[in-house]
Specification:
The chain is mainly alpha-helical and about 270 residues long. Helices cover about 60% and strands about 10% of the residues.
């Protein structure tokens, strides 16, 4: 499977190719059909813009790593201080800023891809909504939004890592570290770094439907023995689960865009 950024580039090229096909297609085809295809082809612009977010994602991840392994500079009462780019910062503040930046960029990428896939492959109520862009939660939580059992594949293979990361994202972006009195991390001290609090772990499990059937996590393709969830190290969890989500979006994007290309060819070849 291609990496997500490479699949985005390939899918953008696939959508652009439709423009040429439309311009040379059978002139007897109704204009409404041609307009629908052309509207889909223009989504290549959104994919090109999405590719430009990957350097920001990589930089945000590198910053998280540097904060996690930065040496402790000094302690003042119950606060630890580290250097971030030659600027002294409270560790808890630096952790929050870096996490929020990384999570936000990741989900900007995911939301943009979900919009493209939803506009191409979604049912009219999803694809043609003028105010709300399609979201990946539409694919997961609503029935009959797309065809060919795609929703089943998404739910069965990716629901757990996707929803866990989505919950963490909403928690950080909307609530900070405290959600209803629950602390996300064990401590604000540098020594505990990115260790999830036990209450936070259980809360995410309950909210996102975590379960294990025998030796396999349900709605997840990660092998249980390789799954970092129970170790509670958030960076390890994000690295593993975002890799799974990337695979999901790469597959969904490939299926959506290549299906449209095939549709244009099949129905214009008269």
């Amino acid at each position: 499977m291609l990496s997500l950024d490479k699949q985005i580039s390939d899918s953008a090229a696939h959508l652009q190719s439709i423009v040429t096909a439309i311009r040379t297609t059978n002139p007897k085809l109704p204009s409404r059909c041609l307009e629908k295809w052309e509207k889909g082809s223009l989504l290549h612009q959104q994919l090109v813009g999405t590719s430009q977010l990957f350097p920001a994602k990589d930089s945000a991840w590198n910053l998280l790593q540097s904060i996690a392994f930065a040496p402790l500079k000094r302690t003042d009462g119950d606060r630890d201080f580290i250097d971030v780019g030659n600027v002294e910062m409270d560790f808890a503040v630096a952790r929050h800023l870096a996490l929020a930046s990384y999570i936000t960029v990741c989900w900007s990428i995911y939301d943009r891809i979900a919009n493209v896939c939803g506009r191409i492959a979604g049912v009219p109520v999803l694809a043609e909504h003028t105010k709300n862009n399609p979201k990946i939660t539409d694919f997961l939580n609503k029935d009959n939004q797309v065809g060919f059992a795609v929703q089943m594949h998404l739910r069965e293979s990716y629901r757990w890592p996707l929803m866990a990361c989505y919950k963490i994202r909403n928690w950080l972006v909307h609530d900070g570290y405290d959600d209803g009195g629950r602390q996300m991390f064990v401590s604000h001290r540098h020594a505990k770094s990115f260790l999830l609090h036990a209450q936070a772990k259980k809360y995410i499990e309950d909210e996102c439907g975590h379960s294990v059937d025998g030796v396999q996590i349900q709605n997840c393709c990660v092998e249980t023995k390789l799954d970092p969830w129970d170790k509670c190290q958030l960076l390890d969890i994000l690295e593993c689960y975002h890799a799974e989500i990337d695979k999901m979006f790469a597959a969904l994007l490939r299926w959506s865009t290549e299906s449209l290309v095939i549709q244009v060819k099949a129905f214009s070849d008269r």
